[in-house]
Each structure stands twice: as structure tokens, then as C-alpha cells.
Amino acid sequence: MNIEIVIADITRLGVDAIVNAANPALLGGGGVDGAIHRAAGPGLLEACRALPQVSPGVRCPVGEARITGGFALPARYVIHTVGPIWHGGDRDEPALLASCYRESLQLAAAHGLHTIAFPAISCGVYGYPPERAAPVALAALRECLLQHAEMQVQLCCFDARMASVWREALNPA
Length: 173
Ligand code: APR
Prior knowledge:
- With about 170 residues, the chain is of the alpha/beta class.
- Helix content is about 40%, strand content about 15%.
- The protein has one domain (about 5-170): Leucine Aminopeptidase, subunit E, domain 1, CATH 3.40.220.
- It contains 5 helices and 6 strands.
- It has a 6-stranded mixed sheet with strand order 1-6-5-2-4-3, sandwiched between helices.
- A hairpin with a 7-residue loop joins strand 3 (about 65-70) and strand 4.
- The radius of gyration is 15 Å and the shape is globular.
- It starts with a strand and ends with a helix.
- The protein binds adenosine-5-diphosphoribose.
């Protein structure tokens, strides 16, 4: 199985790429985004600023992904993706969340990377219930891994409660 659940601060992981749960401007924020920018140092913000805007203020639309270097992080690259804000589930949230995982993994594979760590995208400030997010994420990753068997995926949970939700989704009792 090339999907593993870990409890960690994602900024500490020495993988090829860590995924950032960002917002469309890609200029930093709170949560995991803030932690990644703090740990990477100012070079990351500069690299994000240099990414083209696809519309005013939008460097990465919801469901898409962009790649930068990792700067002072142990990870070589950061893949920035923008999860959907949870509105109750009828505004395409599952398809957009699945797209974040798929596009991030495909971007990593396109850069010849082999190890990637994801946070629980949208499960913080954006309010996506983890019990609903985990099965969507895992289905998208499993499907994508069929094409990219070389990739090793870590799902990085910040605490034990989140990890138990993801473990249950990975191996339902
Ligand atoms: N390592 C791993 N996971 C972390 C870390 C960390 N250092 N810090 C926070 N998390 C976890 C949170 O506990 C949550 O489970 O990441 C998950 C995602 O939470 P958020 O960071 O709030 O991301 P999201 O819900 O996608 O909201 C994105 O928040 O900060 C802003 O700029 C960001 O506007 C965007 C929004």
C-alpha cells in the first residue's frame, strides 16, 4: 500500500514535496499555510508572488495546484492547492476536493517526484467535515496511484483525532 497516515507537523517532513492547503491568492494565511510559509522563509512568498494571476488576485483556482521550491523546508518542493470551502456539500465540494488531491499528485509525478505529504485539505478553516473529506481524498488518491505506482503518499494529520478519522476511512472496520 503506498498510502500511509502519519501524525506530524508537515513542515518537518523530509519528503520530495509537501502540499499546502492554500487560498487562491497564494500569499499565505493561517493554519498549515501559515506554518509552511514561516518554516520555508521569505523565499516562498516571493516564489508565490511570481506565479501568474489567472484573474485578479487568483494565482490558483479552487481544485487546481501550483508548484514552487521548498526553500528552508526539508521538503524540496511545495505544491500549493486550494480546497473548497464547505457549504454543506451541494456546491461541488467533493469533486473540487478530489481534484486537489489528483492535481497535486499529478504535478508531483510530472516533476519526477516520488514522495508527497498531504495535510487534511479544507478540514480546518474551510470547514470540510473530516469524516466526509477522508473517503473522497482516498478514492481520488487510489485512482491516481494506479497511473503513478512510483509515488508514495503520506497523509499528514496534525493530531490523533484526525488520524483516527483517516485510518477508519483507509481501513473501514
Ligand atoms: N502540519 C500538518 N497539518 C496542519 C498543520 C501543520 N503544521 N497546521 C494545521 N494543520 C492541519 C489543520 O489541523 C487541519 O486539519 O491542516 C488541516 C487544514 O486546515 P487549514 O490549514 O485551516 O486549511 P483549510 O481548511 O484548507 O483552509 C485553508 O486557511 O490559512 C488559510 O490560507 C489558507 O485561506 C486558506 C485556508
